[in-house]
Structure formats: structure tokens, C-alpha cells
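Data card: per-record layout.
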Amino acid sequence: MSVSRMVNDQELEERVLEKKGFVVVFFFWPNQTSCNHFSPRYESVAAELGEHAAFLKLNVMENPTLTQDLRVDVVPTTVVYKDGCEAARFEGECSKDVLFRRLKDLFSSRKSR
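The structure for this 113-residue chain is written out next.
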């Protein structure tokens, strides 16, 4: 079962711009091996940190204009938004532990700001 929510370009803009707090977006291409390897790790971290942020997924092939506008040139790419603004970007795949630590540190450090 997927913990994150699949969105299109319009939904992403609405959810990121209207959401206070953190939104984590996984930009992926379904036919890319590294994206397929990274997806379960992303879902696992989303399940563990879902109380701290909304976790979304966007298929870059189905949403090329937004992908280009957001300068997503590498897949997988994970972008973290805070109050509608980009707070961090992680390009390429990484282990579940690395993603968890990066996000947990980011959520902790930005909570007080």
C-alpha cells in the first residue's frame, strides 16, 4: 500500500502553495531503474515521517511542463517544500537511512524557524 499520494501538476501546485509546513515530493519516471529501486525506500520513510509532512509523488513523463519549470533534470529527485518554498533538494537515489536522516534533520532544524 502506498503511503504517499500520486499527484499531477495542478494538484502539486495547489498542495505545495496552500500547505503550511512541510511537503516532500518524489519526482520519478516509472521506466527508470533507479526510480523503481528508490520508490519503496521513499514509501517506507513516508510511513515513518508522515506526521511531519505530506508526501507526494509526481510522474515526470506525465507532467513535463511542471517538471521543466521546477528544474527537475535528474530522476529520482526529492524536493522538500516548507510553507510553499523549496527548502531542500536531493538528486539521485540514496538509502532509506540516508533519506530518513536528511528529512528528520531538516524537519527538526526548520521547526523552530
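Known properties of this structure: The two ends are 34 Å apart (CA to CA). The mean pLDDT is 93.

See the next section for split statistics.
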